[in-house]
Amino acid sequence: FDVLEPVADGFRNFLKMEYTVPAEELMVDRAQLLTLTAPEMTALVGGLRVLETNVGGSKHGVFTDRPGALTTDFFVNLLDMRTDWTPDTADSNLFHGRDRATGEAKWTA
User: Fold this and answer.
1) Do 29 and 35 touch, CB atoms closer than 8 A?
2) How far is residue 10's CA from residue 34's CA, in Å, rounded to a whole number?
3) What are the distances in angstroms from CA 96 to CA 43, 60, 70, 72?
């Protein structure tokens, strides 16, 4: 059954290892396999993040103070201009969101 084990699932924030293909392309490929449109994929990702369905209970991408509640918090906080997103120096698939005014760490993705 090893061949059936997924190597990546962007909807659940899972990447088994580094690949030559970027993680976002693997997620779009999965959405295509599910025949999802771009709006459907967007809604699914946002909904799954606030409902905390990440693999291993990871908090990466859970941009809400009310986890478990189906809200638009994911999109509101992702697009908030008061947040400065910077890549992690050690992990190319990890980003840190910090408050632009205070520098306080707010989110990871």
Assistant:
1) no
2) 13
3) 22, 9, 23, 20
**Residue 95 to residue 107: CA distance in whole angstroms:** 8
**60-93 pLDDT tens trace:** 889 999 999 999 999 999 999 999 999 999 887 8
> What CATH homologous superfamily does 2-108 map to?
Peroxidase, domain 2 (1.10.420.10)
Look up the pTM and report it.
0.78
Cα-based angle 96, 8, 79 (whole degrees, multiple of 5)? 35
Residues 6 or more apart whose Cβ sits within 8 Å of residue 95: 85, 86, 87, 88, 108, 109
Give the pLDDT band (50/70/90) at residue 30: confident
